[in-house]
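Anyone opening a protein record will find just a pair of labelled lines. A complete record is shown below as an example:
=====
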Amino acid sequence: MFKYGIALAVALSLNAAANLMIKIGMRSMDLELAGASPLDGGVVGLVRLLLRHWVVLLGIACFAANVVFYAYALQKLPISAAYPIMVTGGFAIIVLVASFVLKERLSTSQWIGVAAILVGVLLVAKDAGRQMGPPTPDGASIAASAAGDG
């Protein structure tokens, strides 16, 4: 089960990294464009622009890798716990990096909200192991619980 938890941690890290890379790449692209549209140069211009701002492409690749690791994690982890952990873990990383690296400012009430969200996800994830039931090769435990037999 440990490897599925690691896969989830990798997925949330890749998701957060992807969002941050795209933000940073689009910030530099916006500076270059100086108000013009990325589509002003047509498709070829857009491709050239993306190649110059490769960090956006790297962010998209991180999103793709995130899906692979997340799908692997979902083989054994309950989605009712995995999804909140992934989204909120990524959210926490993004808020911290946005605040300290990108110099985005959050108010005190926003920081309290971030803390409340993290506490809520910890409560949701706390009992995740009990939701899983015994492993079955054919997913019978999932089907049984969905039908109310589990």
Observations:
- The chain has seven helices and no strands.
